[in-house]
Amino acid sequence: MKKRCNMNIMSMDIILIFVFAVICAGLVKGTCPSTCSCVDDSSGSHVNCYSKYLGRIPTLPKDTYYLDLRYNNITEIDVQLCKEMPQLHTIYISFNLIIEIPETTFADCEQLYRIDLQYNKIRSIESNTFVNMTNLYQLYLYNNKIRSLVSYTFINLTNLYRLQLSHNEISTIEPFTFMGLPSLQYLYLHNNKIRSLESNTFINMTKLYRLELSGNPLNCDCSIFPFWSWLIERSSIGTTAKCSNGTLVTSLQSAALETCHPDNCQCFNGGKCEAMGYELICDCIGQWTGRFCQDSQCTSFDCGFGDCYIEPVNGTAQCLCDDKYVNYCPGLYQSNNQTFEI
Ligand SMILES: *[C@@H]1O[C@H](CO)[C@@H](O)[C@H](O)[C@H]1NC(C)=O
Ligand SMILES: *[C@@H]1O[C@H](CO)[C@@H](O)[C@H](O)[C@H]1NC(C)=O
Ligand SMILES: *[C@@H]1O[C@H](CO)[C@@H](O)[C@H](O)[C@H]1NC(C)=O
Ligand SMILES: *[C@@H]1O[C@H](CO)[C@@H](O)[C@H](O)[C@H]1NC(C)=O
Ligand SMILES: *[C@@H]1O[C@H](CO)[C@@H](O)[C@H](O)[C@H]1NC(C)=O
Ligand SMILES: *[C@@H]1O[C@H](CO)[C@@H](O)[C@H](O)[C@H]1NC(C)=O
Ligand SMILES: *[C@@H]1O[C@H](CO)[C@@H](O)[C@H](O)[C@H]1NC(C)=O
User: Which residue in 33, 85, 119, 335 could disulfide with 64, CB within 3.0 to 4.6 Å?
Assistant: First the structure.
């Protein structure tokens, strides 16, 4: 009888130790939130928190590799996702109320493959948010409120294949925004507010296959010329880019853009050809003026009895009286040790 009792106490201890160990492991690993369902498989935890009225991202199992947070009321991302879940491979946070993505959200996310942030209220993306995610294959940001894209936002996403930015409010795309996307094949920018595109906007996207740009009020004056030339050169790229009057950019005739060809514009004294409406004009540096930047201030400068001298760098005029630079050379001046009166 006594012996049996001892045995019971011993097995109770073992059970307690076991329970304690399981709790500890759970704490280290992060447990599955009661509202979500988690399935463990050989890759880790497959976590489903679809439509659970969540207001924020809960603490999740550390080995989560697949995370579905669609249709919740998440307003902010306050965790560094891949620091919490280093095996994270796929994340869906679409159909939430996120306004901003802190720059560190995706830090150390080299392994992340798919990010779905569509249907949120994101207003802007900082340039370091998505860098260096060398395994990222798909990035969905459509149906947000993004207004502009800054240079180098997607740098070093060497495997990105599909980038979805349609249905935002993008009006400005800075030069080199899409630098460092050697594998990108599908770029969706339709239904935004893009009026003009720089010639270097789509530079070095050698694999680009489809560029969706319809539903943007593209201005088809001379400012479209560099983009148009690029499209003609890369004729294999299917594009739906249209001018604000409905004409397809690819169907613009070179004759219509004749006056926009840089060869038809020559500027002197450091001036540059700029698109202005349906022609190119010279943008002069410094004090140079005139249609071709050929006139300096000397054209109208009154130097009195001296010579007008032009500073070549900036076209600024000065008067040369004898050996001195002044603003005006009066009638009475000294030369060769003799005083003249005129
Ligand atoms: C989100 O919040 C709104 C209003 O607060 C509520 O009506 C809706 O049911 C919530 N949806 C989810 C999925 O939590
Ligand atoms: C990206 O990777 C490079 C090289 O590994 C590193 O120097 C840089 O700091 C990283 N940038 C970010 C924002 O993590
Ligand atoms: C991109 O990657 C290269 C090579 O790893 C690295 O030198 C560079 O710093 C990275 N750029 C950024 C902005 O992190
Ligand atoms: C574009 O790619 C070419 C060849 O890969 C490279 O030489 C060039 O520097 C790249 N351009 C830019 C702006 O990085
Ligand atoms: C639209 O604008 C382009 C460029 O200015 C012009 O060539 C084209 O004829 C216009 N199309 C219509 C339908 O007005
Ligand atoms: C023009 O260049 C000269 C010489 O570099 C300099 O002294 C002068 O201040 C400049 N003027 C203007 C208006 O920039
Ligand atoms: C000007 O006058 C000074 C002395 O008054 C004289 O030394 C100098 O040689 C003269 N210069 C010329 C060019 O005549």
Answer: 85
